[in-house]
Request: fold
Amino acid sequence: MTKVGLKAGARKKRRLYFLLTSITVLGLAVLLVLSALEDSIRLFYDPTEIVEKNIGPGQDFRLGGLVEEESFESRETAGILINHFTVTDGNESVAVTYEGLLPDLFREGQGIVAEGSMNEDGIFVASEVFAKHDETYMPKEVIDSLKKRGEWQRRTAETQQKDNAL
Amino acid sequence: MIAELGHYFLVLALGLTVIQAIFPMIGAARGSDRMMMLGQPAAYGQFFFSLLAFLALTYSYLISDFSVSVVARNSHSLKPLLYKISGVWGNHEGSLLFWVMFLALFGAMVAYFGKGLPKSLRARVLSVQAMVGIGFYLFMLLTSNPFDRLSDVPFEGNGLNPLLQDPGLVFHPPFLYLGYVGLSVVFSFAIAALIEGRVDPAWARWVRPWTLLAWVFLTIGIVLGSWWAYYELGWGGWWAWDPVENASFMPWLVATALLHSAIVVEKRDTLKSWTILLAIIAFSFSLLGTFIVRSGIITSVHAFATDPERGLYILVFLALVIGGSFLLFAIRSDKLQAGGLFAPISRESGLMINNLFLSVAAAVVLYGTMHPLLSDAFFGVKSSVGPPFFNLVFSLLMIPLVVTMVYGPHLKWKRADIKGVNQRLMAVTGIALLAGLMTFYVTYGGAIMPAIWIGIGVWLLLSSLQELASRIKLFQAPFKDSMSRLRRQPRSSWGMTLGHFGFAVGLLGIVGTSAWTIEAQKVMGLGEDMTIGDYRLTLKDVIPVAGPNYTAVRGIISVSPKNGAENGEIFIAYPETRTYVSSPITTTEGDVKTTMAGDLFIVIGESQGQGRWGIRAYYKPMQVWFWIGTIIVVLGGLISLSDRRYRIGSPQGQKASRKMKHAP
Reply:
């Protein structure tokens, strides 16, 4: 074999090694990703879906919607704040309880997303409440849900009526 | 009037960009010097006019010209000057203008400093740079014109989101964009090389400093962003694996890989097609980051529906740039001659493994970021992939990467002796094991991963120092000799040592703060107290404060040791909650007490009525190590960039390139 041929052979071999290593690493990474996904993926439901799909206790998920007007109530015991409010999509609504301080952007009438699960009494126990730092102050998932339930259109029409009245 | 001028300059710049895209490319193919030479003046002119357009927009912000739609939407006449200026790039339209101006600037820099480049290569680089530019100019002019006027001129502007009014965020986007745009130069070089069908060490000597520059900018941009999140958002975190963050992290990972593979091309004249591929991928991620984040598409497929024009343009543009360059790569990459051989255990292999893991990491982040979008688009299932996913996958994927970082710098080019390296690292390995075991012992009963990671972090920290020590023959030669060797170390190897050392310091910080953070919250009246870790917080007073464009509530909180003497006050914290005049939201200004051991982070929330206030506190061990580590890394990058070999435009004659070949 010529010198050039030798070199080419070694090169092919090296390429093969590299390919095999890459495939192994990629394969392991895919396995890792899949197993990690299973535990950490959170489905998103709006109140209507919770009712329709009859979501019960034991499943962590994200709930999104508007904090219903005049539903918010909080009580302090020994320095710990316990909050109750209702989240609605204009169609159905779900009672939520959360222990702890709420984010600054939390207001009645505002869109929120909360993570947690349902308890035996059909109340959503939130472990975390996100109020999005967004220019529109409204999480995307909530906007989509409101549009689907017709609440968005109703509100837009209402605002327009108000504007026209002015 | 000024806005119309800005619009006009933008169109002029587009015209010059078209010239810059077409003629040098044709000239290079036909060997026509005159056509190739057109590239330079066109590049200068393009930069000149895009700069004028940018200045015109800045002027509109400065005089608060609310007849310009972007200004009305994003500015306010009462805003401090700094934030009026930062408002220019704090939105979709303005950021595009900013982007394209720097694209033009970097093109002009290639034109100016590239006198030493082969004529045809320079012409092609300029042409590719201009083609990318055309895409941006058209996108702006067709869908997102920053100079659009309003027919109903509002009396006052909407104001910038108060959360964004922070010095950290004034400089965060520009640095990020500089990083993104810097990668465009590397991309242009890669495409030009594919067309030329030639990659040699001289090419790599050009690509390396540009990659390094882009990478330093990206690093600074990302860190400023997390710095802002940490101090401004008041949830005590600095990284949340949010799509917006991931979008900047993916190009960073690939750019880091590219930075290392370019070394192999330069020194060993091999891994060429892989390096080209990385350059293409890195820039593709930059584009993805710029467009997808700004347009909000990544958070929801429905963003397409709300603005179909922009969405469609972005899709077509991305498909053209990314698809086109991959196609070119597929057709032309076999033209690149493979270079030197190396053994499985060698510096080259180490760098290849580093590349492999960095690329896989980028792919994982991409998948995690896109998963919600894909499952929504294909199955109609709305979901989110949270930090637990990324944290788990990353903490496992990074282990082999850091092990490679420990060994790699000790390995010789071509063929290395792993036994020798093991022997040399014995003491360091021992100390690292001990550190890991001690951590395990101290935190017994807790998770085991942090202990492993502390061990690995210490290992990397010490091995990077040991590598420097062995290079200057510390304790092997007379001390004076070692010192003079230390002074003679090339700056690029300082870059490596500092880069790896800083990475280790930052890594230890990440482990500390993500493994052992504690959080406490309580609703308190005046005089009441709470404890967190070893501290006791007493609410002394709450007072109202007035700022330039906000009013605030300020807490006065005395911090003392939990079990210490009654009056053992360590310091007083003054956290604030601000309510802005122009915007219906409030922001928290936490007060942070930083020590090397950890940060004590105190936030005051809203009033709970009856003179009671919600106080939140975090204790974040070793948080400051992360910031210090990143500063060292950036410093390493800058020092390496100042290496005279890379001085842009420095003559690279025979002598320089011969010296290169013999460099270690």
User: Anything to note?
Assistant: The first strand of chain A starts at residue 41 and ends at 45.
